[in-house]
Write a structure and sequence with these properties.
Radius of gyration: 35 Å
Distance between the termini: 126 Å
Low-confidence stretches: 129-134
Mean pLDDT: 83
Largest sheet: 6 strands, parallel
Order of helices and strands: HEHEHEEHEEHHEHEHEEEHHHHHHEEEEE
CATH superfamily of the largest domain: 2-enoyl-CoA Hydratase, Chain A, domain 1
Number of strands: 16
CATH class of the largest domain: Alpha Beta
Oligomer: single chain
CATH architecture of the largest domain: Alpha-Beta Complex
CATH topology of the largest domain: 2-enoyl-CoA Hydratase, Chain A, domain 1
Length: about 425
């Protein structure tokens, strides 16, 4: 009887343990980084991260910012994604010494909670467009007023100082973290992510639709977004100067392969680099006039190599390539433009090397066309093996399969008398010619 009681007691304990609720999983916080110029690829990564946080049911997203600014269109897409995100978004200017300038300021104040690390600054949000050249005064005012109005609408909803936010746009006003906190542009100053999470835990945020949400972040686990292979490759390359250098190296590799067929490696590497350079540049707003000037420069280099013009076409190609590189990226954002220095530094070596390689390739082609098989007749060579119905001879700097009507000993001089398919018909040299 006691045995049965023990069994029933054990089963009761197991049932109670099974019925007990499982311990709640700790909340998760996704960390995203905006630590470079704002452009379409950074927008893509941030939007992808916000979507992932929503699917995973994360408690919050922390967007760490350290940027000089970027494209207005890309910035607007990020702001729209933050506003529409079901997961609360916290923007955080970090590390110390970092800044959220221009587009970074607009993104900073658009979030549910805005925070900064000690020793950071923000502001100077004067808008720039993804177009090149100078805007007329009327268009400039329209862009400024539209940006300021959009920012005012969001900051009003967030309960922040919309007047100072407008001044950051219209007057390029900047703020330290203390200034921003005192002026009600941000809510928190935190030394690091752990400090920020501790200060956010239990905080009630008001979403843009007016709904209140409490941030339950006790014991939160942080993790970062896993970027795709394409994003990992392209993100470091989306510096126009770097992308141009990669593209030029790719073209040079292809040039080398054409000038010396059979090397293979330069052609393979050149093709890969050229594709990577084009992919990186394709993400940015391209000025097609600049692209056409680059193409015209290559045409000039080719014609100069084929019909030397004492450097006139080569000089024209250099000018076209430098101008094309400088205006290639259609934007007024300094960090996204190719400067005169990098343009000249890339163009001059490219022009010299490409014209030189093309001349070598063209001369080699012309030599082969002028020579042909008939040029081999009467050439003198050396039998490298005994030659009869078959053998090897060395003629004109090349090894050939050879035949002879009479047996020729190894090491004897031979003369080419005919070419039959891929074999040379040879005869022994009876007497040295003067």
């Amino acid at each position: 009887m006691r045995r049965y009681r023990r069994v029933f007691g054990f089963l009761a304990v197991l049932s109670a343990a099974a019925a007990a609720p499982a311990p709640a999983a700790p909340p998760r916080v996704l960390l995203l980084d905006l630590d470079r110029v704002v452009h379409p690829l950074t927008t893509e990564i941030i939007v992808q991260g916000l979507e992932q946080a929503d699917r995973a049911g994360d408690a919050a997203v922390i967007l760490r910012i350290d940027t000089p600014g970027g494209l207005l269109t890309a910035t607007q897409e990020i702001v729209q994604a933050i506003v529409a995100s079901p997961t609360p978004v916290v923007t955080y200017v970090t590390p110390s010494g970092g800044h959220a300038a221009s587009a970074g300021f607009i993104i900073l104040v658009a979030a549910d909670v805005a925070a900064m690390a000690p020793g950071t600054n923000t502001g100077a949000a004067h808008p720039v467009l993804a177009i090149g050249g100078e805007m007329d005064e009327v268009m400039k005012q329209k862009v400024e007023n539209d940006t300021a109005a959009s920012l005012r609408a969001i900051t009003d909803k967030r309960g922040r100082n919309s007047e100072l936010a407008e001044q950051a746009v219209l007057e390029s006003k900047s703020f330290t973290e203390e200034d921003a906190l005192e002026a009600n542009l941000i809510e928190v100053i935190a030394k690091d992510v752990d400090d920020l999470i501790a200060k956010l835990n239990g905080r009630t945020v008001v979403r843009l639709d007016g709904e209140e949400q409490v941030l339950e972040l006790a014991g939160a686990q942080t993790y970062t977004l896993e970027m795709s292979l394409r994003q990992k490759i392209l993100l470091p390359l989306i510096n126009p100067s770097v992308a141009l250098i990669v593209l030029v190296l790719g073209i040079l590799g292809i040039y080398i392969e054409f000038s010396s067929p059979g090397l293979i490696l330069p052609g393979v590497l050149g093709g890969i680099l050229a594709i990577l350079g084009l992919m990186a540049l394709s993400v940015l707003p391209i000025n097609w006039t600049g692209a056409m000037l680059l193409g015209l420069a290559i045409v000039f280099f080719v014609v100069e190599a084929m019909t030397p013009t004492n450097g006139i076409l080569a000089a024209g190609g250099v000018i076209a390539m430098v101008l094309g590189a400088v205006i290639l990226i259609e934007t007024d954002v300094p960090e996204l433009r190719i400067g005169w220095g990098p343009a000249i530094a890339v163009t001059l070596p490219f022009a010299l090397i490409s014209v030189f390689l093309l001349q070598l390739a063209i001369r080699s082609f012309r030599y082969k066309m002028a020579g042909g098989n008939s040029a081999m007749l009467s050439e003198i060579g050396v039998a490298k093996t005994a030659v009869a119905d078959d053998g090897k001879v060395f003629v004109h700097g090349e090894w050939w399969n050879a035949r002879a009507d009479e047996k020729i000993e190894e090491g004897r001089k031979v003369r080419v008398v005919a070419i039959e398919d891929m074999h040379l018909r040879v005869e022994p040299v009876r007497q040295e010619r003067n």
